[in-house]
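Q: I'm writing up a methods section and want to include an example of the input and output format. Could you take the sequence below and give the corresponding predicted structure tokens, formatted cleanly so I can copy it straight into the document?
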Amino acid sequence: MKTLIFTHRSDIDGMGGAVLANLAFDDATYVLCETFNLQEMIKKYYENGNIYDYDKVYVTDLWLEEPTLSLVAKDERLKGKFFVFDHHASALNENANKYDFATVRIKDEKGKCCGTSLFYEYLVNEGYLKKENKIDSFVELTRRYDTWEWKNIYNDEKARELTLLFDSVAQEGYIKLMTNKLKEAAKEFSFNELEEMLVQNKKRQVESKLSFYASKMITRDVLGYKAGIIFIDYEYRNDVADYLRKINADVDFVMMVAMDYGTISYRHVKTNVVVRKIAEHFGGKGHDYAASSPIDGESKDEIIKVLLRKNKV
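A: Here is the clean output for your methods example:
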């Protein structure tokens, strides 16, 4: 079966979709997308007709918007083989669940969902993939990290180590590494000696970076909240807020400007802040406690205003 998967390029949840597709199908092509260019990438495949060459088309860990949702729903050649698996509140705001091809679920009996867990459930239920302990473990570690349950519920360092390994080997390296690891004969999911070394080296690097970022943070009043603003490398966005909580930083949330990815990431420091709403103010989307917005011309102007003066935005 010839399959095409559009998935998030920025984290292990997006990578999980590509890995599972490699395991389930002999001919899987994955397209790694940014949060805010998915519609454009699908449009390219649609306009040149290439999207019709595939038996199945999947979108994982990313949300579709209008008019793409309606475009797929009205296309008789496409709608029966097109499937979306997402867990972002912003996708619910787009009313994506009204379409038969879209599965948008924030939480179930296992806890908070992620794109990888929803896609895995589908692949098993449809008979494309058999359940195995090592794949179960991989999916669960991915889910725990992506939903932050590794920290808030389970204190599961192995889940964090999985994303540290991803940061060490980057997108293509991670997909290849995890695909091969899960195809091996071993019944359990574990790191080998080299992978453990990469993880430990990355931990030391992260601690040094977080201390540096915290020392460079500036504070501004944004939408009535005290915001910490930091220019960062994108890969550290999930660790910064946790570090700020650990040192009791006096901010409500943190805005992390990652010029290398062209995005601003928002994370809550205090639980009274819904950063999704703040991201939406700057043209973004996401979860209540983790969201992002693109750095385009308009948002650059907004950022400059925030940085140059302390009055409310």
